[in-house]
Amino acid sequence: MVTSQTPERSKRRRGRGADAPPKPSRDVNYRQLKNPFPQMEVFPADHIADMHDTALRMLQELGVRVLLPEARRIFAKAGAKVDEDSEMVFIGRDIVEAAVASAPKSIACQAGARHRDFTLELGSLVFQPGAGAPNATDLERGRRPATGQDYLEFLKLTHHFDVFQMISPQVEPQDVPTHLRHYFTTRAQMELTDKFPFFFSRGTPQITDCFEMLSTARGLSDDVFRANPHCYTIINTNSPRTLDIPMAQGLIDFARYGQMSIITPFTLMGAMAPITVAGAITLSHAEALAALTLTQLTNPGAPVCYGTFTSNVDMKSGAPAFGTPSHFQASLAAGQLARHLGLPWRSAAGSASNSNDVQAANENQFGLWGCLMAGATVIIHSAGWLEGGLTVSFEKLVCDAEVLNMVAELCAGAQAGRDEIGFDTALAEVEPSGHFFASSQTMARYNTEFYQPHLHDYANFGTWAERGSVDANHRATGVWKDILANFEPPDQNGDGLAALETFIARRTQEGGAPPES
Amino acid sequence: MVTSQTPERSKRRRGRGADAPPKPSRDVNYRQLKNPFPQMEVFPADHIADMHDTALRMLQELGVRVLLPEARRIFAKAGAKVDEDSEMVFIGRDIVEAAVASAPKSIACQAGARHRDFTLELGSLVFQPGAGAPNATDLERGRRPATGQDYLEFLKLTHHFDVFQMISPQVEPQDVPTHLRHYFTTRAQMELTDKFPFFFSRGTPQITDCFEMLSTARGLSDDVFRANPHCYTIINTNSPRTLDIPMAQGLIDFARYGQMSIITPFTLMGAMAPITVAGAITLSHAEALAALTLTQLTNPGAPVCYGTFTSNVDMKSGAPAFGTPSHFQASLAAGQLARHLGLPWRSAAGSASNSNDVQAANENQFGLWGCLMAGATVIIHSAGWLEGGLTVSFEKLVCDAEVLNMVAELCAGAQAGRDEIGFDTALAEVEPSGHFFASSQTMARYNTEFYQPHLHDYANFGTWAERGSVDANHRATGVWKDILANFEPPDQNGDGLAALETFIARRTQEGGAPPES
Prior knowledge:
The structure is a homodimer.
Chain A: H1 7-15, E1 33-34, H2 45-62, E2 64-66, H3 69-77, E3 81-83, E4 88-90, H4 93-102, E5 106-109, E6 118-121, E7 124-127, E8 135-138, E9 142-145, H5 148-160, H6 181-192, H7 204-218, H8 222-227, E10 232-235, E11 242-243, H9 245-256, E12 260-263, E13 266-269, H10 277-298, E14 304-307, E15 309-313, E16 320-321, H11 325-341, E17 345-348, H12 358-374, E18 378-380, E19 385-386, E20 391-393, H13 394-412, H14 418-421, H15 423-427, H16 440-445, H17 461-466, H18 472-485, H19 494-509
Parallel strand pairs in A: 2-11, 7-18, 8-20, 10-12, 12-14, 13-15, 14-17, 17-18
Antiparallel strand pairs in A: 1-7, 2-4, 3-4, 5-6, 8-9, 15-16, 19-20
Helix pairs in contact in A: 2-10, 2-11, 4-10, 5-6, 6-7, 6-19, 7-19, 9-10, 10-11, 11-12, 12-13, 13-18
């Protein structure tokens, strides 16, 4: 159990008055987690091997449609068969296997401060809040197209909770013009947080802008920047078997600069993927291998994170469903394939619910346990995600963060040595029918033994009713408002931020960089 | 995957019209489950052995207070040191070890119909809804002291969901006089369900009444009744280290008749148990061993289920908390001790929340995963439990049953053979950027592949809003009302039920049987 001080907590404590004596309190490191859960297999090993072989066969015999000419040239140069008319690329098994061999098994991610660094490898555990939503919602302001203000507020909430080790693009700031949006989001990430940042892959001009802004703000030389990943992107394939222009370009650009791609075929069983877990994950695996191969052909050893996000549709309506048994099993199967490759990988939780209700809680947590027992290295959409990703909820983020904190507490483990068993300090001290409130062991530990929730309320019914019968959803409103009202950004490189402003002003004047597609 | 027909479902199908052609539909056996989850250890094996040794030392050196003279006589006869003045019993390690050796490792529970039978042993998985609450609540009628009507309605809901394999005493029917209450609850269990019934241990007169009612209603000879457990009771110790009169009497009476006791020290870390997981579970283990020993001294080989229910209090207020990291870890430790003994065991989920909200959902599911990964054989309070057990909620029962159904689906597993991978029937059939809605594999499976929720709603936001923006909690009201409105009891032994009525009429006229304490 690591017990180093977190900036978040020390700041809060300072807020109580610099002269107050430091209180003994529970302090567990949520920033570098190891997955303590035993890993579950949904299929026998020989069937996993069959799925891997089928994926390789698909890449070789059925091929992948690759829309970016440069990507097709890279594949062709490596010996893949390319049909320029159909844009189909047929990738031999040997090419894929060489790429898997060169992909790093361990990725040292460098954040804006050393205590925020983390390593992605099988066994490590990283959480991200829900990402990529066009809408934001909260109980005070309702559901609306997300704005820059929403983006900034979500960023502050993400920074606040240590259990989110990575920044995600939670919502799309739709009131910021698209050719300038990456300046807005990068400035915000450089100013308001020192966690590992995210950049969208929307064409080379935006990507290189982002890399330059990051290096400028954090004072990184080109060599230092390229030596380790300092940021990441998410690459979705267009299932089935299609890699579009900005996604292929992102894979190439991030690999070229030594920055990290997280590859995520986002597939729904019964719609854009086969209806079975085995079929859908075989397709997802093939697509992930194709994308991974492109990174390694671009720059062998480039940091790349294998991944999947596979759930099912409701066959009555065609609507996406999340946190289902099939979603859980798909995570398990993907985990087995990731271990087959030996690579770090991402999975995802999430909810299809339209409000932050019991369905939303149960779906998200059910999917979360699937990811945890699958051994996922990065769990995306682990908090706040509603409507299958169309909306991120302020209250849901706060509610789900409570669950993630409890998972992080489990990562810290527990002890059962002589002091904890406490024959003399507890068990023999208390008479039959007595109580342990005042035992020596309790007195030594009462302030530090248990996790303290930020949301869950243990008041009895009478007290709770007197206080207005406020449910968790409405209490969560108070929690996020309090976090935002008291937010203080971490210490940053002032010169870097000033230089960043100069860069953004110049690039804005030059016309910015529209997204490419 | 077992796919036998469930009575619940065949009935529902008949309701659509006897002449309609049978629809292909998903049909998974939820009645006999095996736990598919890998088991997690919170402590190393040598520390578990230390905890077991410490518990044995406690029983020998510190002793247990046993309030029932007959129980003290049984312990004394076996060689335990008994101090009649203090009512303390000091149980030697050899006595406990012999009892553990004689306790059955597998318990064949006989319900009212053969398809409802199940076996309790390490690896099997049985759920019960929340139990023992003085209050009932639902969104239409509010929170109130529970009545006979509430008892009957909860019984019908418990019968409805196959995933509840055992009947629990969900609420206390407070409007039924205590000397007649066991007639009311036993009649209801015999008439409305064929699942495995529960009887309270409130003194020998009530217990023998219940045994006779069960044998009468189900037409069991004395030999048949005693040959297998046909019912069970829950035995809570009075922590720390006290066994009260009705609990000790229940252990003796159930053992004598070959019926099953589930032993449950219900301890809260920091209050009636040490503040540490290791200390609390060592105490719980000692108490469970003492109770188990009494059953085996009464009748060697009597069916007894080891158990624990340990969570923590909030040290600020002393209020009980559930679904916490400490609760999770306590379940894991208890599971390790149960495997150390080789015995089936019970654990529990539950929530401290005051309403069926996100906190309630997240606490219950978090505790549930602790039980599942601990390998609990019976998971009590797995649905419906609010306020740390003071209230059972109709809506929460429906919401939690959805999660349990999804867990049961995971028990059924998935396949990844040639048909499921579907190279020819799916993967090669669909072109890049196409869809799988009409692939051969989808057409063959669309009606059976996915779990169909009874509560979760996958409508998009617009449709959901048009339908009134009804959250899961309020939808659950419709679900339980529908179940109750359409409830049909299973086929029962009519002669047995008539004889049961005669028995109850006679015993009522004789003055019934007041509870003993």
